[in-house]
Amino acid sequence: MNRRQFVSAAGAMTAAGSLGVLGTPAIAQKAIRWQMVSRWPDEFPDQMASGRRLAERITQMSDGRLSVEVVGPRDLGDYRDTFDRVSSGEIAMARSLSYDWRDRGLAFEMFTVVPLGMTEAERTIWIQDLGGQALWDDLFGAFGVKPFLAGSLGPQSFGWFAEPIRSLDDLRGLRYRTTGINVPIMRELGVRPVSMPRTEIGPRFEAGELDAFELVGPAVDLAYDLHLFLPYYLFPSFHQTAGSIQLIVNREMYESLPEDLQAIVANAAQAEHVANLTRVHASNIAALQVLKEQHNVMISTVPDDVLTRIGEVASDILSAARDEASSEHRRVFDSFVTARAQIREWIELSEGNFMRSRALPFSYPSAG
């Protein structure tokens, strides 16, 4: 089936669609049926549930006229092909991370995580109100894809270590599992970064091939029992301050929908972005307490002088990446860093000073 035939079949009001049904028999003859691939499997905290909630929003808000079925990352083949398959129209939509496709250029990183970049709230401001969405639409539109914000992995950790980090000397020589742009940053600091899938962390550590590692944050790390290997849990994450999750939709299929169904997809994604972000924060709050109180995990923070050096290295690497990027990708980068400076000034004046005031030595009412 070619792309045009697929789009026609997906949009036809018939009960014989090839992509599965989540509607009721009463509306089956009028339903458009799409599949949404989830990057995350069932066992990954919060994210498959979020994908299903998003699909249900679309199905219910459309009264079943657009029916969405969620499938796992391996149910339709190799997940790494997902972007291209959404681009071609073979798959209607996917919930994923933009940096999954970072081999296509620097700008794909900017819509997920940037070292010492933005919090999730800040990136949402950039995308929704400071020009980010138009740049995102242009970047992905060249591939026939329409992107939406649709959730977050939340703030992550610096990682798991045998001892606290007190100086840069404590990092040098460590075999440290990490990914993405953090690999060259850590290498510049004298760390021996190692990239590997999550499933290899435990076996490689037990084999004596790994000294430290990072994955996500408390809820995910607890779910995968990472606390069993090392006692110190370090914060903050400088490289993954928040992992923005995207809904990507085949653009031709999206634009072929009636305007009200297009609005439903857009508004359902926006609603799920907020719902998932709050759920992830709540899960991390609960998991952190479990790690401390039930598993005796010790929480530590990375010293300011170490973070300062990391910031200098990250800045150099990002600047070099910008210089090497195409003009289209530089536009995204420049928009991001300009918005970061604007947002930072306001957030630090308002929320930053408020956070500082809460830490001042006064008593506050307690429950009960």
In short:
This protein has 368 residues and is an alpha/beta fold.
Could you characterize what this model shows?
The chain is of the alpha/beta class and 368 residues long. The chain has 2 domains: 192 residues, 3-Layer(aba) Sandwich (D-Maltodextrin-Binding Protein, domain 2), CATH 3.40.190.170; 139 residues, Periplasmic binding protein-like II (D-Maltodextrin-Binding Protein, domain 2, 3-Layer(aba) Sandwich), CATH 3.40.190.10. It is 45% helix and 14% strand. It has a 5-stranded mixed sheet with strand order 2-1-3-10-4. Strands 5-9-11 form a 3-stranded mixed sheet, with no helix packed on it. A 3-stranded parallel sheet has the order 7-6-8, covered by helices on one side. α7 links the parallel β6 and β7. The N terminus is likely disordered.
Give a quick set of tags describing it:
11 strands; alpha/beta; three-stranded mixed β-sheet; 368 residues; 13 helices; D-Maltodextrin-Binding Protein, domain 2; five-stranded mixed β-sheet; 2 domains; disordered N terminus
Largest sheet: 5 strands, mixed
Beta strands, count: 11
Count of DSSP-assigned helices: 13
CATH superfamily of the largest domain: Bacterial extracellular solute-binding protein, family 7
Query: What structural class do you assign from the helix and strand content?
Result: alpha/beta
Helicity range: 40-55%
Report the order of strands and helices.
Answer: HEHEHEHHHEEEHEHEHEEHHEHH
Going by CATH, the architecture of the largest domain would be 3-Layer(aba) Sandwich
The geometry reads as globular
Count of the separate structural domains: 2
By CATH, the topology of the largest domain is D-Maltodextrin-Binding Protein, domain 2
Strand content: 5-15%
What is the averaged pLDDT score? 92
Q: What's the end-to-end separation, in Å?
A: 65 Å
Rg is 22 Å
Strand order of the largest sheet: 2-1-3-10-4
